[in-house]
């Protein structure tokens, strides 16, 4: 690429083809499961960390007060004592819930991971008795008298379409006050996902970890009335799998990997023969839940499949057909394994058919299905736009990588709108699907025509935090 | 990855000529170094040695040698004039321009005027460069109005000024993207008392209690208001009579915006979107049907027009006496026919021309296929006869004019010698070499598919492969002959079948007649049937003999193939025929018919002989029909 580009003099540079003009902007895309950060203009985020962070309880010398030390990054999430796993995002909304932790997390990603080392004043530790050489990532504290860490990098952040005005103002405040960004912009995730697919108008179906959203985008702007949100996402699917495992005969015992010391292979269905690890400390339920979720993710990736249609999975005959076809074997960390046939279709069917959802113990089984969301989304959009939206359906989000998802979605759309031209755009690369909105943000922030959009520092100082509502519509 | 790409990435010169030969030398030199390897393993690599140790040193040297000095890039600040505030200066990497690099690296060796160069550098440094993307910023022109203008022109019962302002603000914000304007339209009405201090309204204001509920606005309402205001403002700024054409048409469109028809259109669109699968399919079919009807209508119109044109003859001033005689008429007809043919229409004269003796059809059938078939048959027969008469080594299409030349050549070589040396004479050679068997293929491919199938079936019955194993000249010629005979035979059999059917029909009629005759006078029927049958039988035999003579060519070729099958099958078929002609009533003839068919199907191997009998029968049937007609 470089060799091909270098001989071109500036005057001949094909600006009309590649409208990029990179100003070393940073792009931050926060989700419930993962937070992605990187430089604009790149095709993949440099830093992808789970939005889950660890919180270690440290007791001070006077054992009356306890403080928590937060650590970030998946490499820190290993079994240890007095260790809670938390998430700074809200699961039901996919927006920031804990702003202190969010700030620390983002600083860890944007400054510690993506900025060159600077001359730093001695880091102020949380507690005086803190061991100095811990070797772990320690969240950097704001240093008021220090040079602003991101003074050279404009920052583009993404947000859920239903994000509140308060949260947006808080975000620009952090970027401007704490980090000293020269410019800032907030963009909605569906808009970015549409840009990543190369479309300005699209119907974006974002099937993420905590939520699924269906949104209509017109000319790079979100149509607010069309926003549909449902918990039918990765975590909901995990819950369905857990219910399925609980009802299985025999009941599936979920033992995450970290608890297994060794195991011996057993036949399918035979009881597991594994020795569990003993820990000198208690494993907190939050850490165990995090690890179990990882196991469930593996199950989703390797076993779960979406009934491709036509028709619903529960229609007579389909289940018998699936039973006659080869299943998939999944081996638990403790060696217990079983062939999954019809169940692997059943767990995902709740995304499409409300009646197929397995009842969860907490009664949260039913949720708005994807076809219903699409229907509701389209009905809230002007009729003239609907054909165009159906011709530009963008599928993004990690959970949309389920086997057969696109086929089913296409079938459902065809059934809903016969005689219409329906075209799905789903990226083939898993990274493009998982980081769709980040990539769109990366494209947006590296465009030459985007420079006029940035909210500059001066504008922020003149207008205050309210400018983000005025500008980022 | 192609080697070109690798070169590109590594920044090597793109011409492959440079490094190639040297590399070869290197490989031969490197050979002895690979001592640890078995010989067999080394030889696996062929000419290229197995790369165990990459020779980095030479590679690196060449790479750096061929490289141009690296381009200089600088981090330069720029601003964007399209921005509302000019304070934001972003920085991007930019290639150092020529004069800049020259000025910095070698300022003393500057040949040009130093003042100009210096000025340019100065301009670069003090004026921050504007983004090249600023020019892409375009804004929609949204009409403006003042307070007075609003009060004088734009007052509306439905729309307060405040809401109109709000609408125009949205239109400006969203660049007249109506779906977005409608989507974000969230107007909170202002109490009529304090329109001015709209920003100062707080919840405690007693006036807010009187705020009217916000009207739900449809997209059409918004458009209507906007277009109304825009059209009026346009007229205010420039009276209608002074507008240019474009302006006037824009004004007209905006002034005549009809929200009702828009709504109706949208309702239709909605209905179209919410169709069920069946409805959609039905509509699709209807559309296809409509298209077909329209196309048919067009075709009909065109044909009608053609007809009119034909009927609409030009008035001639020429003397028409020349056409009054039969000779004149025939020339006129000929002219018309040629004109017709040039139009690529079905020839008018076809029916007249096709009246060849081979197709002496008793029934003048209206469709033209039997006629043309008869023609082809006669042509095929003539070709076959021609070939047989010439024989030997000439091509069948050879005209007799070439005889003189041939004789000249004969003086040089005797026939035997010619055969020995494989000399052959052609009047016309196709360009380039061809295979002999292609001649066979050509015969087959020129036939229609069904005919082709029949010929191959016949060949299969004869146990002759369709593709010749050893296409020597003699074999090919023999094959050609055989194929032609087969096609003649097939034609004749077809004709025969047809005539058979007709005979049967006539017989059935006759039997019917006879039956009625017997019911009237039962005594006369037996006596009359006796001589008649004898007659036909006799005729059969006689014509049989005649026909054998006529189709001697056929026989010759067929006798070579299967001489033994002839008498038995011939006799058998004749016997059947006899039975048929003697049939007393329709039922018995039908039975015999069935038998006949069974017989045919059960005796596939004897087709060679049977064909001949078929040709014989065709002659018989003709005569017998004639007799019956009498």
From TrEMBL, chain A:
Q: Does the keyword Transcription apply?
A: yes
Query: Where primarily located?
Result: nucleus
**Cellular component terms (Gene Ontology):** nucleus
Which SUPFAM superfamilies does the record cross-reference, listed alphabetically? Answer: Actin-like ATPase domain
Per the record, the GO terms for biological process are: chromatin organization; DNA repair
**Any idea which UniProt keywords this protein has?**
Activator, Chromatin regulator, DNA damage, DNA repair, Nucleus, Transcription, Transcription regulation
From the Swiss-Prot or TrEMBL record, state where the protein is found: Nucleus
Keyword DNA repair recorded: yes
Source superkingdom: Eukaryota
Record text on subunit structure and interactions: Component of the NuA4 histone acetyltransferase complex, of the INO80 chromatin remodeling complex, and of the SWR1 chromatin remodeling complex.
Q: Which PANTHER family match?
A: ACTIN (PTHR11937)
| Family the UniProt entry places it in | Belongs to the actin family. ARP4 subfamily.
Q: Indicate what this protein is called per its UniProt record.
A: Actin-related protein 4
Source species: Xylaria hypoxylon
Q: What is the lineage of its organism?
A: Eukaryota, Fungi, Dikarya, Ascomycota, Pezizomycotina
TrEMBL record, chain B:
Its main localization is: nucleus
Q: Locate the region Disordered.
A: 1-35, 94-118, 193-214, 353-433, 510-630
Bias (Basic and acidic residues) occurs at 385-400, 576-588
* GO CC terms in record: NuA4 histone acetyltransferase complex; Swr1 complex
- GO MF term set: transcription corepressor activity
Positions in coiled-coil regions: none
Which family is this protein grouped under?
Belongs to the SWC4 family.
Biased composition (Polar residues) is annotated at: 102-115, 353-371, 535-555
Q: What is this protein called?
A: SWR1-complex protein 4
Q: Where in the cell is it found?
A: Nucleus
Tell me the keywords, alphabetical order.
Answer: Chromatin regulator, Nucleus, Transcription, Transcription regulation
The UniProt regions of compositional bias labelled Low complexity, in chain numbering, are 517-534
Q: Which domain of life is it from?
A: Eukaryota
Outline the extent of the DAMP1 SANT/Myb-like domain. 132-234
- Which Gene3D superfamilies does the protein's record reference? Homeodomain-like
Single biological process term from Gene Ontology: negative regulation of transcription by RNA polymerase II
């Amino acid at each position: 690429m470089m060799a091909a580009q270098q001989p071109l003099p500036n005057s001949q540079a094909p600006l009309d083809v590649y409208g990029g003009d990179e100003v070393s902007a940073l792009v931050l895309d926060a989700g419930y499961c993962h937070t992605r950060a990187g430089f604009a203009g790149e095709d993949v985020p440099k830093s992808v960390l789970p939005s889950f962070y660890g919180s270690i309880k440290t007791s001070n010398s006077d054992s009356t007060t306890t403080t928590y030390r937060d650590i970030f990054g998946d490499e820190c999430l290993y079994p240890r004592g007095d260790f809670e796993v938390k998430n700074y995002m809200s699961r039901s909304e996919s927006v920031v819930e804990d702003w202190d932790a969010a700030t620390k997390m983002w600083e860890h990603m944007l400054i510690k991971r993506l900025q060159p080392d600077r001359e730093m004043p001695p880091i102020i530790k949380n507690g005086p008795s803190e061991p100095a050489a811990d070797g772990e990532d320690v969240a950097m504290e704001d240093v008021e008298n220090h040079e602003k860490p991101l003074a050279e990098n404009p920052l583009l952040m993404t947000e859920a379409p239903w994000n509140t005005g308060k949260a947006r103002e808080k975000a620009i405040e952090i970027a401007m006050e704490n980090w000293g960004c020269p410019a800032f912009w907030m963009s909605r995730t569906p808009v970015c996902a549409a840009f990543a697919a190369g479309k300005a108008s699209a119907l974006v179906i974002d099937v993420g970890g905590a939520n699924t959203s269906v949104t209509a985008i017109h000319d790079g702007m979100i149509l607010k009335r069309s926003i549909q949100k449902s918990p039918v996402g990765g975590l909901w699917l995990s819950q369905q799998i857990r219910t399925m495992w609980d009802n299985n005969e025999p009941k599936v015992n979920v033992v995450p990997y970290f608890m297994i010391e060794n195991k011996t292979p057993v036949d399918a269905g035979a009881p597991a023969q594994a020795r569990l690890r003993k820990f000198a400390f208690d494993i907190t339920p939050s850490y165990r839940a995090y690890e179990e979720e990882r196991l469930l993710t593996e199950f989703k990736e390797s076993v779960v499949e979406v009934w491709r249609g036509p028709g619903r999975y529960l229609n007579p005959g389909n289940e018998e057909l699936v039973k006659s076809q080869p299943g998939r074997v999944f081996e638990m960390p403790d060696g217990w394994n079983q062939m999954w046939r019809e169940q692997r279709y059943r767990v995902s069917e709740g995304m499409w058919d409300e009646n197929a959802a397995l009842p969860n113990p907490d009664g949260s089984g039913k949720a708005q299905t994807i076809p219903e969301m699409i229907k509701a989304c389209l009905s809230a959009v002007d009729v003239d736009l609907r054909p165009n939206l159906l011709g530009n359906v963008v599928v993004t989000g990690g959970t949309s990588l389920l086997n057969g998802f696109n086929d089913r979605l296409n079938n459902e759309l065809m059934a809903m709108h016969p005689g219409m031209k329906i075209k799905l755009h789903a990226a083939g690369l898993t990274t493009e699907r998982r980081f769709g909105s980040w990539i769109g943000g990366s494209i947006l922030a590296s465009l030459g025509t985007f420079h006029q959009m940035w909210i500059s520092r001066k504008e922020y100082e003149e207008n205050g935090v309210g400018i983000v509502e005025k500008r980022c519509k | 990855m192609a080697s070109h790409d690798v070169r590109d990435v590594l920044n090597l010169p793109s011409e492959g000529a440079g490094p190639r030969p040297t590399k070869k030398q290197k490989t031969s030199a490197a050979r002895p170094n690979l001592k640890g390897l078995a010989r067999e393993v080394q030889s696996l690599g062929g000419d290229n040695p197995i790369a165990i140790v990459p020779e980095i040193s030479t590679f690196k040297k060449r790479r750096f040698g061929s490289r141009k000095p690296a381009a200089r890039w600088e981090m330069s600040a720029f601003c964007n004039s399209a921005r509302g505030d000019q304070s934001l200066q972003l920085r991007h990497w930019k290639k150092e321009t020529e004069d800049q690099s020259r000025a910095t690296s070698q300022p003393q060796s500057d040949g040009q005027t130093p003042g100009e160069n210096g000025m340019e550098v100065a301009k670069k440094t003090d004026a921050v460069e504007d983004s090249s993307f600023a020019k892409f910023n375009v804004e929609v022109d949204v009409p403006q109005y003042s307070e007075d203008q609003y009060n004088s022109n734009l007052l509306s019962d439905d729309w307060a000024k405040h809401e109109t302002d709000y609408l125009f603000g949205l239109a400006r914000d969203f660049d007249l993207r109506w779906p977005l304007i409608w989507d974000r339209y969230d107007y909170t009405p202002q109490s009529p008392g304090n329109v001015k201090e709209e920003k100062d309204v707080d919840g405690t204001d007693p006036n807010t209690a009187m705020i009217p509920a916000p009207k739900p606005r449809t997209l059409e309402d918004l458009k209507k208001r906007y277009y109304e205001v825009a059209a009026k403002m346009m007229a205010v700024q420039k009276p209608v009579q002074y507008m240019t054409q474009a302006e006037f048409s824009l004004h007209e469109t905006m002034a005549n915006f009809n929200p009702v028809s828009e709504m109706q259109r949208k309702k239709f669109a909605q209905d179209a979107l919410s169709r069920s699968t069946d409805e959609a399919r039905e509509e699709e079919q209807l559309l296809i049907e409509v298209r077909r009807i329209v196309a048919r209508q067009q075709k009909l119109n065109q044909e009608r027009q053609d007809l009119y044109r034909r009927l609409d003859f030009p008035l001639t001033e020429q003397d028409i006496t020349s056409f009054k005689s039969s000779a004149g008429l025939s020339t006129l007809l000929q002219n018309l026919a040629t004109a017709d043919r040039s139009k690529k229409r079905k020839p008018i004269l076809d029916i007249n021309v096709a009246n060849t003796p081979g197709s002496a059809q008793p029934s003048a059938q209206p469709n033209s296929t039997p006629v043309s078939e008869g023609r082809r048959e006669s042509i095929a027969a003539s070709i076959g006869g021609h070939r047989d008469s010439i024989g030997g080594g000439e091509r069948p299409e050879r005209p007799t004019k070439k005889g003189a030349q041939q004789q000249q050549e004969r003086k040089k070589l005797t026939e035997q010698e010619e055969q020995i040396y494989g000399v052959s004479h052609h009047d016309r050679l196709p360009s380039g070499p061809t295979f002999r068997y292609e001649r066979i293929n050509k015969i087959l491919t020129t036939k229609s598919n069904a005919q082709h199938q029949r010929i191959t079936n016949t060949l299969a019955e004869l146990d002759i492969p369709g593709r010749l194993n050893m296409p020597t000249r003699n074999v090919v010629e023999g094959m050609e002959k055989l194929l032609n005979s087969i096609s003649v035979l097939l034609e004749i059999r077809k004709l025969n079948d047809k005539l058979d059917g007709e005979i049967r029909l006539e017989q059935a009629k006759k039997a019917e007649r006879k039956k009625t005759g017997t019911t009237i006078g039962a005594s006369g029927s037996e006596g009359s049937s006796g001589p008649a049958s004898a007659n036909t039988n006799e005729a059969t035999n006689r014509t049989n003999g005649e026909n054998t003579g006529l189709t001697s060519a056929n026989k010759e070729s067929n006798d070579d193939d299967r001489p033994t099958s002839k008498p038995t099958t011939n006799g058998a078929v004749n016997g059947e025929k006899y039975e048929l002609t003697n049939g007393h009533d329709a039922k018995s003839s039908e039975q015999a018919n069935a038998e006949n068919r069974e017989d045919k199907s059960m005796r596939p191997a004897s087709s060679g002989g049977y064909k001949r009998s078929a040709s014989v029968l065709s002659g018989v049937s003709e005569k017998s029909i004639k007799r019956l007609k009498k």
